[in-house]
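Progress note, sequence design subtask.
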């Protein structure tokens, strides 16, 4: 399942090429519900936009799911956690934090 249109992916490729200067790992915890399938598809689409983006499913459990946090240069950035799907208005905030 594709979430992002090709034109959106091209926009993100150009954005990340200009602005993303280090590797980022997007870590997420999910079970097998429908929202998690959407999240996994979205994150896989994002991964295709830059070789500096890595996506990892983690066993680390949170009170809410889906749950996402970032690692930059192997350091957890737990000050930015995202619970739920980063879609709609939240998507731009999510992209900015990458």
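Output:
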């Amino acid at each position: 399942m594709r979430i992002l249109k090709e034109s959106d992916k091209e926009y993100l490729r150009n954005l990340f090429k200009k602005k993303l200067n280090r590797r980022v790992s997007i870590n997420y915890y999910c079970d097998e519900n429908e929202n998690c399938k959407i999240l996994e598809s979205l994150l896989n689409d994002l991964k295709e936009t830059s070789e500096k983006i890595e996506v990892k499913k983690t066993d680390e459990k949170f009170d809410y799911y889906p749950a996402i946090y970032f690692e930059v240069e192997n350091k957890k950035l737990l000050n930015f956690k995202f619970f739920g799907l980063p879609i709609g208005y939240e998507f731009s905030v999510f992209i900015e934090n990458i």
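Strands lie at 24-29, 53-57, 67-72, 75-83. Work on this subtask will continue into the next period as scheduled.
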